[in-house]
Amino acid sequence: MPPKRHLTARRLRLGAELRKLREATGMKSREAATLLGADAVQMSQIESGVAGVSAERVRRLAGHYACTDEALIEALTAMATDRTRGWWEEYRGALPPVFADVAEVEHHATLLREVVITHVPGLLQTADYARAVYTYMVPGLPKSKLTPRVEHRMRRRAVIESDNPTPYETLIHEFALRIRVADRQASRVQLQQILDEIEQGHVTVRIIPTDQDGFAGAGASMMYTGGPVPRLDTGLRDAPTGTAFISAEPQLAQLRTLFRKVEKATLDPVASRDFIHQLTKEM
């Protein structure tokens, strides 16, 4: 198959998983290429996500690697044959690639868990809130670049607002809810937006109160997305070079542990909803 034009996070993940399966057997890339009827360059392109791979080849590789996890094989096959052109593809070229990659990961997720400390989660933001954040974080951002950023953020909400919403649980620090990124009215509307999502029943919000003792999780912001099988879960964290996509099991285990630790510092969902109600009145 010809090389792919865009190295999306999903394609990179498929190649990485195939490489993990090969390395687990101790087989060299050249050996795997020979068994596949390909050359070393083609194998390298497949494992790096540069070139696509057919479902038949995925199954052949799994057989050569003695992989007996049928659920994983089916999931990898689905990734290889997925030709979905999601709405996020409209923004490639107009926005940094990570915008589309995050939306794609969210679209395919079976569950979404998020911890946010300093801002309202992107999936719950209003347009005015998102506009204020982008304007502040990127001084001098022209309208031609600001508008698609805000539009993209609003369209991401489809994963929690569709007819078949993805289960979403977020832990938000009280600090994030009290900061007025715009003005009082925008903050009030933002809080009401969160309450509306809670009332729909597809979003779970837990608040981390500022008077919580022993909370040292100021750097705990993260998103954890469930894959079709646990091995294909993905973590997202901010890094100096941008958003980091995490797929290694030891790191994913750390993120799951971090989420549980932060969750212990939160109010329960009912108390959190009541807290936001009260804060809305005070705003």
Write up this protein.
- It is a single chain.
- The protein has 283 residues and is α/β, with parallel strands linked by helices.
- It has 13 helices and 6 strands.
- A 6-stranded mixed sheet has the order 3-2-1-4-5-6, sandwiched between helices.
- Helix 1 packs across helix 3.
- The chain starts with 8 loop residues before the first helix and ends with a helix.
- The model has no long low-confidence stretch (mean pLDDT 92).
Mean of residue pLDDT?
92
Please give the order of strands in the largest beta sheet.
3-2-1-4-5-6
Number of strands: 6
Percentage of β-strand residues:
5-15%
Task: Tell the overall outline.
Answer: elongated
Q: Measure the end-to-end span.
A: 57 Å
For the largest beta-sheet, the strand count, sense and barrel status come to: 6 strands, mixed
- Spatial extent as radius of gyration: 21 Å
Low-confidence stretches: none
| Total of DSSP H or I helical runs spanning 4+ residues | 13
Order of helices and strands: HHHHHHEHHHEHHEEEEHH
Q: Pairing-aware structural class of the strands and helices? A: alpha/beta
The helix fraction, in percent, is 40-55%
